[in-house]
Design goal:
GO molecular function: oxidoreductase activity; S-adenosylmethionine-dependent methyltransferase activity
Strand order of the largest sheet: 1-8-9-7-6-3-4-5-2
Organism: Sparus aurata (Gilthead sea bream)
Number of strands: 9
Subcellular location: Mitochondrion
Number of domains: 1
Order of helices and strands: EEHHEEHEEHEHHEHHE
Distance between the termini: 52 Å
Structural class: alpha/beta
GO biological process, one term: mitochondrial respiratory chain complex I assembly
Number of helices: 8
Main location: mitochondrion
Length: about 350
Amino acid sequence: MSTGVSRTVLHRLRAAAPAPAASSGTWSRLPSSCCRLPAGPRCEARRGLSVSGRGTMNVFNREMKKRQKNWAASLQDGHQYDYLRDEVGAHRHCDVTKTFPLALDIGAGKSHIAEHLNKDVVERLFLTDVSEKTLKQSRQSEIPTHCVLADEEFLPFKENTFDLVVSSLSLHWINDLPGALRQIHQVLKPDGVFIGAMVGGETLYELRCSLQLAETEREGGFSPHVSPYTAVTDLGNLLGQAGFSMLTVDIDDVQVHYPGITEVMTDLQGMGESNCAWNRRSLLHRDTMLAAAAIYKEMYGNEDGSVPATFEILYMIGWKPHESQAKPAKRGSATASFGDLSQIGQPTSTKKT
């Protein structure tokens, strides 16, 4: 498994941009109970608060997340909050040079990935999302698309269906992440590939720390206001446990500069990325908010008066095993010793006769 780290810096501008044209792709509505696959084992304890009857951690209110995304999609200027998804959707989709007859985009939203693909890469694409209003705003693409209203936790597709599965900034709201990865593995054909991006554990650490310090100072304690996220150290293990091979995991820290803490939280709402954990606190006192804004600027503020917000993006690639894929050599089949490496490049001595 290979890993890497990179950094991207964005400057949040308030100027409105024209909204992208909506797609005219085929629409189909499937209830979340259609073709439900069995849920997997419980996630790691730090992601959860309680255990559901299925044995999985129940951290996030999925119905609340659907309402948040539908509300964000109903905003007239909602396109101005798409900058993070556009940035992430433009990356990693060309990492595999291969033609895929049938592809699936999980948590597609407004299809931020499809607009960067062409028919030479994907011949037909299915878009799924839990938000109907968001799917109706999917952008135009030269690839024939089919929209399916479905929960990311219950994929309504048969085994060995897709040649490619992609997902961008959606899996971090999944209660049963190991189970979701296993479902993705199931719907992939042998030698199919999964390319995904999700928010990592260090996301919005500036906002998290500022709110915690402000609440501790003003109220004598703090409540979680930023959702828990998966650590990069766990992601490779989860992909391997789901059955993927030839794994690649890397990190991109996307840093966005805002005028202040209010703009950070407003944009999170506009993205449909507000906290939906069951233990979230719905209200924030005015004094606490003012204190958090001051702490944010004091601890993290830039010289120009703006404040940064860091989004840790975890990119992953995993293949469904197939006999045609490269395999490691059998143990003991080496023809050279590591001890001989020091002799490489040294002149060989010749004896005169």
